[in-house]
Structure formats: structure tokens, C-alpha cells
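Board notes (copied after class):
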Amino acid sequence: MTGEVRVLVYHATPDAKAIEEAYHQASVSLRGVPGLNGNELLRSVHDHSGFVVASAWQDLAAFHAWERSATHRDSTAPLRPFRDPRLRTPFGIYQVAAAY
């Protein structure tokens, strides 16, 4: 294992422009977060209302430190209205098990 972590947050909206704006706003507020290596907004090829924000973290400790911080909720607030209500748990946390 590399120790790196990927966090996937699932969103659903027919308004691509609105979620892209929210993603950019959240990403600006996440600049400089220790241990955050980057993030992406992904759009489903099969369901154009389906989106995923995928973030890459140095390790689980860095992610948990940010998640427990006072800035966590504020920095992700722009994206919260777009969470996918069809899912019981709208996110996943995965540790990299192998990579090339």
C-alpha cells in the first residue's frame, strides 16, 4: 500500500454549469490544505446528471485532520446542495492498494 487516499463524493444535478461553479468555488477555498494533492470534477458518460468530486490525499491522517477541522464544512458548502440523494452514502474513502 502507498498510504495515499482517494475520496469520492457523488453528486447529481442536471445543471452542469451550477455544479462546475460550485466545484471551482470549493476548490479555491481548498488551496493549501495540508496533505491534499488535488481534486477533480468528473461527469458520468452514462448519466449526464451524475458527477463525482474525486480528491487525492497524501494519507488517511491528512484527510481526517482536514475533515475534523473548522474549515471542512465551509469549504465544501458550495457543493453540498448537489449531493446525490439517490445514494444512502454519497461518498467513499479508498486507500490506494496498488499503483503503477
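Comment from the instructor: The chain has one domain: 5-95. The two ends are 12 Å apart (CA to CA).
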